[in-house]
Specification:
Number of helices: 2
Shape: elongated
Mean pLDDT: 90
Largest sheet: none
């Protein structure tokens, strides 16, 4: 049995990068929602923060759905 260490390292690197990107997107979404709540409490409009947060959550959902698609198909 021969292990292809280059391929294993490549899979590890891509998995790590995708995980960090997904966590960063979700974190930006949570930050956007917290800024939206703060803006509403101060009496301002928070449409941009809410839209950005929802866009981040949509990208997270799309990435997860694509991962499931890759596993199933």
């Amino acid at each position: 049995m021969k292990i292809d260490w280059a391929a294993l390292g490549s899979v590890f690197g891509v998995s790590l990068g995708a995980t960090v990107a997904l966590v960063a997107l979700f974190t930006l979404g949570v930050i956007g929602l917290s800024k939206q709540e703060r803006a509403v409490a101060q009496g301002g409009s928070a449409a941009l923060a809410r839209t950005g947060a929802y866009a981040c959550f949509a990208l997270c959902l799309a990435a997860v759905a694509y991962g499931i698609y890759l596993i199933v198909a």
